[in-house]
Amino acid sequence: MTQTYQVIGTRPIRHDGIDKVTGRALYGADFHAAGLLHGRIVRSPHAHAKIAKIDVARALALPGVEAIATSADLPDAANRMANLGEGAINLSHLSSNCLARGKVHYRGQAVAAVAAVNGHIAEEACKLIQIEYEVLPCVTDVVKAMQPGAPILHDDLVTESMAAPRSQAELGNEKRQPTNIAKHLQYKLGDSAKGFADAAIVIEKSFNTATVHQGYIEPHNASALWNADGTLTIWCSTQGAFTVRAQVAELLAMPIAKIKVVPMEIGGGFGGKIRVYLEPVAAVLSRKTGKPVKVLMDRAACFEATGPTPGSYIKVKVGADKTGRITAAEAYLAYEAGAFPGSPIWAGCVCIFSCYDIPNLLINGYDVCVNKPATSAYRAPGATNAAMAMETVVDEICEKLKIDPLDFRIKNAAKEGSRRADGPVFPKIGAIETSEVAKSHPHYKAPLTKGTNPAFPRGRGVASGFWFNIGLKSCVSAGVNGDGSVSLVEGSTDIGGTRTSIAMQLAEALGIPVKDVKPSVGDTDAVGYTDVTGGSRVTYATGWAAFDAAKDIQRQMIDKVAGFWKVAADDLVYEAGTVKSKRDVSKQMTFREIAAEAQKHGSVIVGRASVDPPWPGGAYAVNIVDVEVDPDTGKVNILRFTAIQDVGKAIHPSYVEGQIQGGSVQGIGWALNEEYVYNDKGAMTNASFLDYRMPTALDLPMIDAVIVEVPDPKHPYGVRGVGEVPIVPPCGAIANAIYAAVGVRMDVLPMSPPRVCKAILAKKN
Amino acid sequence: MTQTYQVIGTRPIRHDGIDKVTGRALYGADFHAAGLLHGRIVRSPHAHAKIAKIDVARALALPGVEAIATSADLPDAANRMANLGEGAINLSHLSSNCLARGKVHYRGQAVAAVAAVNGHIAEEACKLIQIEYEVLPCVTDVVKAMQPGAPILHDDLVTESMAAPRSQAELGNEKRQPTNIAKHLQYKLGDSAKGFADAAIVIEKSFNTATVHQGYIEPHNASALWNADGTLTIWCSTQGAFTVRAQVAELLAMPIAKIKVVPMEIGGGFGGKIRVYLEPVAAVLSRKTGKPVKVLMDRAACFEATGPTPGSYIKVKVGADKTGRITAAEAYLAYEAGAFPGSPIWAGCVCIFSCYDIPNLLINGYDVCVNKPATSAYRAPGATNAAMAMETVVDEICEKLKIDPLDFRIKNAAKEGSRRADGPVFPKIGAIETSEVAKSHPHYKAPLTKGTNPAFPRGRGVASGFWFNIGLKSCVSAGVNGDGSVSLVEGSTDIGGTRTSIAMQLAEALGIPVKDVKPSVGDTDAVGYTDVTGGSRVTYATGWAAFDAAKDIQRQMIDKVAGFWKVAADDLVYEAGTVKSKRDVSKQMTFREIAAEAQKHGSVIVGRASVDPPWPGGAYAVNIVDVEVDPDTGKVNILRFTAIQDVGKAIHPSYVEGQIQGGSVQGIGWALNEEYVYNDKGAMTNASFLDYRMPTALDLPMIDAVIVEVPDPKHPYGVRGVGEVPIVPPCGAIANAIYAAVGVRMDVLPMSPPRVCKAILAKKN
User: Fold this and answer.
1) pLDDT value, residue B214
2) Is-contact B546 B554, C-beta < 8 A?
């Protein structure tokens, strides 16, 4: 049964579009205030060192310098934990990541900050700050960091283990060995040993994947004004204004009531603009000077000192019977947390096998500190590298069993009632449907095209991907204006066009044109608490709030009309943008008429909603990719790329397609080129967009985005969330296509020309 | 029965106080945006003239000039009427008041506007615009303007008469004489001729009062950005962001949905910052240039071209029987509308006799155009000059009948059940109580003090005043934060500390400390429609909305706790900041605990309310004033001033006292010095704060503000509104004190030294 919609499924121009293309939109760096000071950060040149001494005297003496901040200006958070929207965070780590306390754990870590009358003087002053370091040996590889004798980042780090949890009583006074392993997760379903015994084929492979960056165009920024009454206002480009408020409150030991965060427009985040870096620093510089302070990062700082997604070591073992039914799977995942605990290892464990319904599972996951920047979320965090491993192994099983890889995926697909590795049972999901659509897609049926150079082999690969998506809290308010327009305020910052996708859901629920809705994003004082823009949640959860707010408006409109007509509210119904009498349907008032009358008589109508919906069922995607490989250089060209995704319901198909295309492109970059290159001193050697190679339009074909709609049964419009899962399958699909082309199974990311070349040469020999 | 409150009646520091005293608060003129252009206005040097030609070529050629606007850039509103929050307005008049079309009707009227890269170039360019005028004779006095043969401002003006309303059919093709009388109001109660026949004494006097300005410190300003998508954002200092939106929408023939108005902080308004002057001009300059444009007024423009309160001619006739009971009263009020119809004549008619319960009334009011700036609201608009007339006559009756003037007022006071001249019956009001408090006040009982110069006579006067106050629409929203603080957003712009008085009512209703409420003022996209900050309505109506929002939060908190405890919501009650079980009152959760739990589990709590409450009963005030008169110069010194006022309930007594003191001071300025001085060309000759003499601290004693609380029976906290009535009695009280001192009855405002001197001399001769 297909629901018909008036607004949902159409493609109106986004409300913020004109502002952005004409340069009117105000991003964080556009902030200005009278008396504004400019802040810059002094960063560690060492990957691992003790800070022996910081001498700021010469820098402070430079004319135009107004203040210098170090970790001494931040409260010592000791080992206090706080849940700040990204899960529990050790505050002393978060604080040290803003301004290092005692030690630096990665090159580029912030050590001091300067506020001066302009940016040039601030930069000059940074050079005058004299910092004495005692350099320590560093480790930048997850496997090496887990080995005995590895340099230890945190003397007090204790492994938190699901496999062998121990109480303090058990621990007693035991002296535990220093470790870099912050966490050991373990998930089991059934009996994997028995499953492997039942298998006709077992494939086991291990993989190494590099650290990659989100690569958002806009560098981090933060402006702050610490007012004379002790209140703090922060302007920044962030994925979550309320999340920034919570982090700053904890880091500065302030009540959140004292803080207002004003979200400016954001030039991309992809998970990397959730954690604070500059905000508390701008705040203390403002506190010291009594003036507003704006602190900016340059591109190198974005690479070296924000939160990329982790490099990892992953081992996957999968068994299947001769019919192609998976009998068991095991995974070992070691994720680089970077300088401080907190890699997305949980998500890696949850996602690695979730495309499939597997009776016997054993997953061990490790969160491991290394001397790299503290990792952060990046679009389906931890799922892409995990999927690369699993999908390559699945491809090999299909090859060995001579089963079509899409048939294999359909046969083994997770479905309603399947168990996720960490326990939950899936509701209605679209794993089967996406594989079926892939199978019948013209791309999959078409033969590989031939290139102009017959020496360049071509191949096709497929892969699947899963991301769970999240729910969390969202608030909206919606004031009905006298002309029938609606002013919609949402707490979600808008990265990918969600002002429009939320406005569309409100318009649909009210039965009014979407052009009559004026969406805007509120600051933390202006709208109810709303969680971060992440986890593919905004169109899902904030859209749900918009739906509820529309219902609230409907109720109020019915009450108004009941008053106008002097009838009982129960005798009226709201339908298709009108309030009607149930007894005489010819008697009706339109939304616009009610709005105008409400403006004239009595109180006006304001709707609002606050939601914390259940998490959606999760999103599934399948990629079909054709590649051509230059066997001499190892360069891989993407010839054709089809991305099929269950989106639940596409509110605005263009923006859904945009998300699918954007995620695919980021996946392609990760697959083929992107990586942090480190020297043996722990220094990133390619911290610029010139050397850190992201795909450009010239590197890519048109990405064919195929929308599959298996509505989420709980959401009012069936939305599932679309932003993240598109990045999950590309690495695996491209690896499988490379294998199809040149017969080498890549076990490393990125599959850059030298690595592909080396693999081809190794196979030849 | 006295209600006890935790928050109401306390004196917390206003939330915007620190920002204002430290210079951080952003007023309209502080607006900045990249590429900002600066606008200036070319104003008419003539009080009355036809505009023959405007040549902008030379001005446009000046380097740095980017656009020039004239009335040709505004839609011709013909004679379209619109109700824009100040009552019905003729749009062509409002438009012509922004940029003159065809004619100028007062000196200083805006004729053209320039946008340039800086203010200096814009001013230079203004001088280069060549305007040819055909100068017409002008009239600047209300009495002369009503006489046959007076210069006529509007050829098409027809008197709208309540006394002799005529239908179009009656009018037929009759050629009506041109007139400056826009409106004739008439109110009757009983039979005044019979009332006078029953009187033992009848006093009739006439009065002339000058035009006076609100004298707000901050000049008018407006910035606008007309975006490429046809949306318009306006930043300005205004008493009503939604009112600005409505006016601009009508003047530019745009849907309100296309307009966002961002209210900046406001440096005083007193009624003068409701009508738009610069906003539509900034908008069209921005439309022409594609850039943001900021237009500022200087002080002279504020005097000459904004809306002062009218000069007037008033005749009052009052009869009383020998016991001192008023038997009848008649009034004739002619108010200068200024250039366009719209004086507060209605309010003058309604207020002039409303301190008293008078059985027989006849009031005739006239709204008369003269060649002065179009008048606007000014604190109890039209009531002060009316009260001066009535209170002087009452004083003379008391003198003649040898009755104590406060006893007379108590005896004749309006009370519950009395009829207002225009019809409504008063609910519970505080006219008697204020007079009783005055009578027993130490000031009234104390003998007059003696001065150092025995030749300077001293005298004491009393007078009463009434202002009706208003209700209108208000919206608030209030998000509960995880730390138990509440982010309160109100649609009312804050002039006199209403962020605090609204926050206090929310805090009281929730049973939480007011420091836990963070109030802010929303822009027109951020909060539900809210009427203008005026009519003493904000603490009354928006406070009522805050009360309702608190009830909304209470309901949600009860539902939350019911969920936490798995009990029925009906079993719970919200009391004193906690939710309690009705069955076991020891079982309870505090507001803070519920807020924290709601933050952790499920949707957060957001309250909201939209109200359009009934109008309050009205406000009464009594002044006691002691003066000393220098008989040689006529200078009047205020020795002691006591202002007694029924405020219903004082939410924040300090701010109530501040309103009483501020209103009293403005009344004293009006009484003694303030006036527009015109030459015979219709030019104001004192358009600066040097020559337009406002009282300074050195001119004044401490104003003793006495709060009387006769709660408004309908308002949740008994609030009546306090801002306006304090300005009503001072002129009459001072006139009566002067009489007591030197024996002359002043019949003119201001009672400036030359006028008092002249009156003393006239009496001597």
Assistant:
1) 98
2) no
| Three-state DSSP class for residue B659 | helix
Count other C-beta atoms under 10 Å from residue A694's C-beta: 16
Task: Report the distance separating Cα B758 and Cα B756, nearest Å.
Answer: 5
Handedness of CA A185, A188, A193, A195 (dihedral sign): negative
Q: Is there a contact between A252 and A74 (Cβ–Cβ < 8 Å)?
A: yes
Listed by number, the residues of chain B in 216-275 with a beta carbon closer than 8 Å to a beta carbon of chain A are: 225, 227-229, 231, 246, 249, 255-257, 260
Closest chain A residue to the Cα of B476, Cα to Cα? A606
Interface contact flag, B482 A256, Cβ < 8 Å = yes
Q: What would the mean pLDDT of B131-156 be, rounded to a whole number? A: 97
Q: Which of A477, A603, A611 sits opposite B477 (nearest CB)?
A: A477
Query: Which of chain A's residues have a Cβ under 8 Å away from the Cβ of B605?
Result: 528, 610
Among B480, B525, B601, select the one facing A518 at the smallest CB separation.
Answer: B525
Q: Which of A215, A227, A217, A250 is nearest to A97 (CA)?
A: A250
Write the single-letter amino acid at B81.
Answer: M
Pairing of strands B578-581, B572-575: antiparallel
In chain A, which residues have their Cβ closer than 8 Å to the Cβ of B483? 249, 255-257
Assembly ipTM: 0.89
Give the per-residue pLDDT at B421: 94
Q: What is the pLDDT of residue B164?
A: 81
pLDDT at B431: 97
Give how far A688 is from chain B: nearest CA, Å. 29
Q: Name the DSSP class of A552.
A: H
Q: What is the mean pLDDT of residues B365-378?
A: 98
Chain A positions in Cβ-Cβ contact with residue B528 (cut-off 8 Å): 477, 479-480, 604-606
Residues in chain A closer than 8 A to B255 (CB atoms): 483, 485
Average pLDDT, chain B: 96
Q: How many Cα atoms within 13 Å fall on the side-chain side of residue A253?
A: 8
Q: Which residues, at least 6 apart from A721, have a Cβ–Cβ distance to it below 8 Å?
A: A469, A470, A535, A536, A537, A539, A540, A616, A619, A648
Closest partner CB to B18 (pick from A228, A525, A610): A228
Indicate the Cα dihedral angle B488, B491, B495, B500, nearest 10°: -20
Q: Where are the alpha helices (DSSP H) in A329-464?
A: 345-351, 383-401, 405-412, 431-439, 442-445
Phi, psi of B53 (to 5 degrees): -165, 140
* DSSP symbol at A689: T
d(CA B233, CA B78): 26
Using the beta-carbon criterion (under 8 Å), do A528 and B604 form an inter-chain contact? yes
| A206 touching chain B per CB within 8 A | no
Tokens 């933060």 map to which residue? A222
pLDDT of residue B86: 56
Is B535:B619 a contact under the CB 8 Å cutoff? no
Residue B657 has pLDDT above 70, yes or no: yes
Q: Residue A719 and residue A722: Cα distance in Å, rounded?
A: 9
- A5 at B interface, C-beta within 8 A: no
Query: Which residues in chain A show pLDDT less than 70?
Result: 1-2, 84-87, 168, 171, 174-175
Rounded Cα–Cα distance for residues B385 and A252 (Å)? 57
B479 CB near a chain A CB, below 8 Å? yes
* Spatial separation of the C-alpha atoms in residues A375 and A12, rounded to whole Å: 37
CA distance A55 to B382: 68
pLDDT score, position A2: 60
**Segment A632-675, tens digit of pLDDT:** 999 999 999 999 999 999 999 999 999 999 999 999 999 999 99
Task: State the pLDDT confidence band at B87, using cuts at 50, 70 and 90.
Answer: low
Looking at the complex, report in whole angstroms how far the Cα of residue A52 sits from the nearest Cα belonging to chain B: 38
End-to-end CA distance of chain A: 58
pTM: 0.93
